[in-house]
Amino acid sequence: FSGGQLVDGFAYNQRPTEITYCYQAEPAANDTAGISVLLWQWTGSSRNYIGGAKNLYPTVNNTMANGTLTIAYSNTLTPDSMAIYVASSYKFPGNGTSIRKGAQLGSKMYVDNIQFPASTVGLNESAKNELSLNVYPIPSNSNVYFEAGNNEATRIEIIDLTGKQINIIGFNNNKAKLDVSDYHSGIYFYSVKNTNGKTLKTGKFSVTH
Description:
The chain is an all-beta fold. The chain folds into 2 domains: 4-115, Jelly Rolls (Sandwich), CATH 2.60.120.890; 125-207, Macroglobulin (MG2) domain (Immunoglobulin-like, Sandwich). It has no helices and 17 strands. The strands form 5 sheets. A 5-stranded antiparallel beta sheet has the order 2-8-4-5-7, with no helix packed on it. Strands 14-13-16-17 form a 4-stranded antiparallel beta sheet, with no helix packed on it. A 3-stranded antiparallel beta sheet has the order 6-3-10, with no helix packed on it. A hairpin with a 2-residue loop joins strand 4 and strand 5. The two termini are 30 Å apart.
């Protein structure tokens, strides 16, 4: 790899104290694997660094283990973006916004079950309790079912971690079924609407394959 700028992450507006995950690191000789998280706030075309953390793994760990990124904040700003970087050859300098040359062939890094507080980007928090809603099973690898407490709910908008709407499904007799078999593993949000577009309920669910 020749080095370069890292991608700019996804929309996120929380200040978590930590991020947990499972990992298995197998760096080659004289190499180091790693994982890091960065939070920032955009101001025009520039961004303000808010906080972050990184864990390095210079030795081989042949079995999955639990890991925690404990985030240190440099100010009291609320972030609008977060990025999580995983590398079998960890060469991130400074605040981790670019990649240095020097990655080695043969190094491996596996990460699973990354968990952090859900973002509220794109969700109407004031509407969370206006509708009785049963959502199950969570997590799911095939279908997620929604059962509303009344017939006011007409549709559900599905939103990913970037704040992008990825699906809309309708209610039938106060029930709806969402096929998540083709969804990537991770956290998703839902926003329940009535016929006038008013948000009745928001929440989240997870997909695991």
